[in-house]
Amino acid sequence: MTRETEYLLALYIAEHRSSPPVSPGRIADAVGRSPAATTEMLQRLDDRGLVAREPYDGAALTDAGKERAADLHETYVALSWFFRDALGLDAHEREAMEMAGLVSPTVADRLVELLLDDVPGEPPDPGALSLPRSDAD
Fold it and tell me: What predicted TM-score, i.e. pTM, was given to this entire model?
């Protein structure tokens, strides 16, 4: 997973929990990175038109960023569900985060179809899934 996708997911989830902008410190905590690394990535995402950043106030996803993050979040939820229910992984959210940017929406949709047919249990509540913290900076 690229760092970019992790930041987009963190912003997407944070924006659904409270109104934007999201403070740089909150984003740094969510992705387990330093404030300096977070500021640098937010600047890059702003340059690419995915984030609207206001220094010291925080960042918010642009329409293009929301679209990209929504697709990533759907894949993240599908992978998390698969890793939890089909594979029984305790670190299902971390594993899903690692792969969300690498799996196409088509593959994620097929996983959901497979799980709905073969695995007992309910799909995870997308709002309940959070970003696992990373120890790396």
Answer: 0.75
